[in-house]
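Q: For a teaching session next week I want to show students how multiple molecules come together into a single three-dimensional assembly. I've collected the sequence lines for a complex. Could you give me the predicted structure tokens for the whole thing so I can convert them for display?
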Amino acid sequence: MNSDTIRDRNMERNQLDAWLTAEQGGDEDAADTALAHLFAAVPKVQPRSVFVEQVVTTAWRWRARRQRLLAVAWTAAAALVLAAAAIAYFAYPLLGGSVVKAIAYLSGHTVPWLIAYASVALHGWLTLGHVGAVIAAALMTPGRVAAVVGVELLGILAFYALHRIAGAGRLGDAQV
Amino acid sequence: MAVQRSDAELARDARSGSEAAYRELVARYATPAVNFTYRFVHDRALAEDLAQEGFLRVYQRLNTYDPERKFSSWFFQVLRNVTIDYLRVNRLPTKSLDALQEEGHRAAAVDRESASPEELAGRGELASAIAAAVSRIRPDYREVVTLRYQEGLTQPEIAEILGLPAGTVKTYLHRARKELAEILSAQGWGPAATEPTAGKTV
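A: Of course. Below is the structure for the complete assembly, covering every listed component.
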């Protein structure tokens, strides 16, 4: 064991002592600095020599794939637009009149039905709301209101407690 | 003398399609990234896989990076999300502290048998003891300890990465240091001890 190694080890021990003393004395800043110095000696996991190359290759493969996909998507979109334009240009004189007629016919028949259904549904909701209000007015007394609010508060508290327990266990259970 | 480009500049160039800029960025953060993930999975190959996934996600989202923000904070945030996603899907087997301690003693014993005294001294038993102690503290404490003391990030940066209030990070750091101090003291490291016993029963 050479003198440099012994000196390094002594330095580490001194830093450890400084940290533990600061920690015991409640000196936050000194403890923070001392532990930071100490950590410099903790061995680091070195990635394999091919790691950087592997990462760059993976990213560039993804980039090439994405560029191919984008090219295909743009080509398909352009082809669709061209096809639609060609159809519109050549077939409009034949189909244009029929399409307009069909749209007018469908709207004329469906819109009145939609309005009728919407009116019936609205009427139903209003009736239900009225019935609900009458029942509530008949049943609710201050005591009952207090009981319902109490039960709701308990429920909220229970959900909150469950959420906290689940949150605490999320990472903690994965690895000690 | 060549001026070293900032992380933000490299990120901007990588986003514009510069492979060299991305390569330099990866080279700069390869070791911190692998060390960060390693603290959670304790498996070197898996840590590298997660780091690689993190780098890929960073590349895919370079267009969302705000150069006003510190790159390292953003990078570790992405890497942390990758690690958490992995841990959620693949729950690692939970081990009791006793089992971990036993495992640590076995590993330390094997280490001592296979290494020469010079190697042992070079590696630093204290450093190994600290690394082992870090792996025993709570995962959220381990996270702040790794980011603060291993990666040298400031408390506000850690708060930004973890999405926690600065006060919580400070509390976590305080408690983590206390736990680390207790673990190491219990193993015989400390001002009173002359020669620590790594294999000592706690």
